[in-house]
Please model this.
Amino acid sequence: MISAVGDRTTELMKLYDPWLWAYYNQIQLVGAQFQLDGHEFQVRPMSIRPPVKVIRKATQMAFTESEVLNCIHGLITGYYPVGIYYLFPNQGKVNDFSASRFNPLISRNPESIAAFVKDTNRANLKNIGSGFIYFRSGRLAQSIQGGIMKSSGSLKGDPCDHAVMDEYDEMIPCDQVDDYVDSRLAHSTIKTKVYLANPTLPDYGICSKFDISDQEYWHIKCRHCGKYSCLDDEDHPQAFPECLHTLSSGEVIRACFHCGRALDPRFGEWIAKRPDVGGVMGFTISQLNAVWIDPKTILDKWNHPHTNRANFYRLVLGRGYIEAENRLSISEVLACCGWDGIQSESKIPCTMGVDQGGGERDLLHVVIGQKHPVKAGKIVHLGVYKGWTELDRLMDLFRVSRCVIDGLPNQEAARSFAKRFPGRVFLSYFNKHQRGSYKWDEREHTVVSNRTEALDASHKEISGRDVLLPRRCDIIEDAFAPHCTAIAKRLEEDEETGSKEYVYIRLNKKDHFRFAFNYESMARNGEPAWLFRES
Ligand SMILES: [Zn+2]
Model:
């Protein structure tokens, strides 16, 4: 009688909890059986279905398996009645996953999974229970160089209840994937999302999602003193690498912050740094918590001179990392500030850069500068203006000899502004095939440049303190400097050609003044000597 009640309880719990379902059904994964031992940290993230779940992780922590099982369980039990989008960054990864991970999961679990899969001939679409799981590429075909985004056909599609974005940071551009997924979820009553990735850059992708979550860390309970230590807490002085102690025997242990004795990561629990945040639950975990990885190998790797620091942070520690030279810092920007205030006019001819406001269509960010006898340039004015006639006024007040403005999004207004000042205003377009000097076209009122090269040049003016900014004031500290830190350079692979090249990407921040400054720098440096100007 008691066992019958026990069985009934277990059955009910299996129905509601994906982790218990996988555990009691002894799900066979590729190469291993689904298990608890050593994977205790998996239980909570796998069991819950909050509106948004974020997993910022090291590699090899088996979160893809647990999210896939969560999806399958939800389809079998009818929790997700319509369907699920499971997105990878590109079609190659979708195909690999389908063939090497998902199909074996079905064939190895005939009773618990295969029995619920209805025949679907298409490799990347499976009918499970009453709903479908679609494996798709999250890549939206785009031309970041040209500034024009077009969505690819592969993501057009059906409504769904739940979406998983796996390897989120590799989806380009990931914020547009969000828009796409939200539109697919719009009519569902469930509407849940999971973001999953090895982090790349701070303030970007999975890191920016984790930052707005409740930020749960794995805290290990010491079996000697009973207190907790969190090896992944980047704010704690005793966290990595201090937490790894080498004993006289040569063995390396994960040391308790309180008594120094060895910790066992299996005895832990998730504790939120921001427990008051609701709706977005975030988990972060490093390989330090994987019992199957000897901490000595981690420490040796850390200490090895040839170890790639960026990859170590991202793949072993599960943290974002950026080389200092690939992103401007606030202090680098402020170090360029001089003592002059912001001018409201100039008798000396100036150059002007204008960035259109993106979402806020008629907002214009303006940077005005001039040549400097010692440095590459001096910025004399910064401002945010509403309305295109303001630009005409600034052209006169600052005797602007050359102005560069981005051609998009409001191309018509930019073009008529350029026509009012023939030979002096140029619409900027980027072309990744352009190399070397910028291509100015007075007849078309355009300037074409390589985006990475142009941004490199203006980046160097600030990092090399080769440009003089006005003295520190609100607009510099609250807008210009933060905007300058909003883009970062990273190596990206061209999906069509396979070639790798550096690209500046926008982080989770506004970047208008960074581009206005870039355009001003282009105008200032691109201007030919007056003597050689064609008449
Ligand atoms: Zn202890």
Summary: The mean pLDDT is 90. The pocket of zinc ion is lined by residues 222, 224-225, 227, 256, 258-259, 261 (CB under 6 Å).
